[in-house]
Amino acid sequence: MPTTLDWSHSDPESWANYPVMLATQRGLTQLGPDHSVRPGLAERWERSRDAQGREVYVFHLRRDVHWSDGSLLTARDFVVGWRRALRGRERGEMADLDGASEALALQETLAPEADIRAALERVGVQALDPHTLKVVLAHPRSYFLARVANVYIFYPAPAVDLEGRSDEAVRDYFDRPRDGRPLALGPYRVESWDRAGERVRLVHNPRSAFPVPLAEGEAPVPVITLMKSEIGPALYERGRVDFVFVDSAAALRVRRPDDLQREPLLSTYYLAFNTEKPPLDRPEVRRALSRALDREALMAGLLPAARPSHVLLPPELPGAATPEEAARLPRHEPERARAELAGAGGVARPLRLIYRSGDNFVPEVAIAERIAAQLAKVGVQVVLEARSDFTAEVARRTAEGPRAYDLYLRRLGGDYAHPNTFFTLFERSGNHQTGWETQGGGEPMRRFEQLLEAADAESDEARARALYVRAQEVLVGEQAVIAPLYHPDRYFRARDSLSGLDVDPFNFLALRSLRQAAPPRTQAEGTP
């Protein structure tokens, strides 16, 4: 269930809002089936740099795009939406905009409201005319066009509806859908939102410039009801619902229904090392442990299909490593692992591996048990511990200073189709909880971040890709902060009577192309 319908303000639990936002809204760009950036609300754009080295985009908006009430989309809608996002609960996501750092700093220091509003006016988003939007970034960012396609705080907001309203009226606008509001651009709009009953009702938006693609004999699904239920699988079996996630990896090993479907995710499941805690504070030990892992054997028989991998970036991602580049990263070489561990003096104590308790679509228990068995073959004892307070336990520090765990298991999912989204977690400010910023006096982390900064600022795709590959080699190879294990898939069941009801590569319910067999025409509906 969504936590908000206000896509500009959002909140830290934004992942829950994506299915509704992606069905009802659109961005300046959109991603193609191969994850390439394509025109969205903007039909074209120019990209340049000004004398100060800032990146400048001029987006030319489509002139056939209307909100669900029939009003025309304008560049002002982006100005209003992005300024609102700079005041929202995820405002740090807008930091790439020129002038955003000033506006964010003023808010953090509780500056006078007039000063904050003045700073927002100076942020690099400007309507040159109703159909032309100018965007200035503080620094060049190679991921920007991919990001505005998927990260919904960059979507426009209906200025006609929102400007001039009080804060309370705006909250009411989004919290109590009625009379066709909030407005939508996508093929669906929200008609009602029952928080207590945990249901959202979406209805078809015939004014959308992004119609549902129809084959002969198909029609758009007129109404979609999203509901949260602990008995979803039972409701599906009884024919009460038409789609259900299969969130139990254990269940997939027992029974695989005929209508089971799979979506490969832009996601990586990995083993992380506590680099501050001996003997894992030595990169040669971490590399040896990574080489001791047989990813194929780890995943064998656990799922209907699996994509074992020793690289961070999924192969479908634009800019992913070539086979030659991937070969330079630690992969299964057990004899080399034994030799390297012996040369490093071995691992004299048991290592504590923690993972999330409970069943989900990642077979964590089985993977953890197999990791323990594989590391035992190279003389390393592993103690397993499932934690319901996984996040807190990963962050918990001992009285001596380092974090308490030795190893943990975690899934990382991409937010947009660009290598940058897989690296930000491991920067100094990222929530990786590995302590690797302390390694080598901080030099490896500085080098890693310099590679990312250069790649993010590089306009040439080939040169940017080469820099990201080098950053991956520092993180996964040289320093072995993590050991990638596999790229997860999401399983679900959907009725044959519906088409386009599935999951997207970012693990969100895809509702943008939902269609069904058209009802038979009656005689009265024949030729006039």
Commentary on this structure:
The protein is built from 18 helices and 22 strands. The chain has helices spanning 18-24, 75-85, 100-108, 113-122, 144-150, 159-162, 167-175, 232-237, 249-254, 283-291, 295-299, 323-326, 334-343, 364-376, 390-395, 420-423, 443-457, 461-478; strands at residues 29-31, 37-39, 42-49, 55-61, 125-129, 132-137, 188-194, 199-204, 218-220, 223-227, 243-245, 260-264, 267-273, 351-356, 382-387, 407-413, 482-486, 489-494, 498-499, 502-503, 509-510, 515-517. Strands 15-14-16-13-17 form a five-stranded mixed sheet. Strands 3-4-6-5 form a four-stranded antiparallel sheet, covered by helices on one side. It has a three-stranded antiparallel sheet with strand order 7-8-10, with helices on one face. A hairpin with a 5-residue loop joins strand 3 (42-49) and strand 4 (55-61). Helix 3 packs antiparallel against helix 4 (113-122). The longest helix is centred in the last third of the chain and has 18 residues, at 461-478. Residues 522-528 have low confidence and may be disordered.
Short characterization:
With about 525 residues, this protein is an alpha+beta fold. The protein has helices at about 20-25, 75-85, 100-110, 115-120, 145-150, 160, 165-175, 230-235, 250-255, 285-290, 295-300, 325, 335-345, 365-375, 390-395, 420-425, 445-455, 460-480; strands spanning about 30, 35-40, 40-50, 55-60, 125-130, 130-135, 190-195, 200-205, 220, 225, 245, 260-265, 265-275, 350-355, 380-385, 405-415, 480-485, 490-495, 500, 500-505, 510, 515.
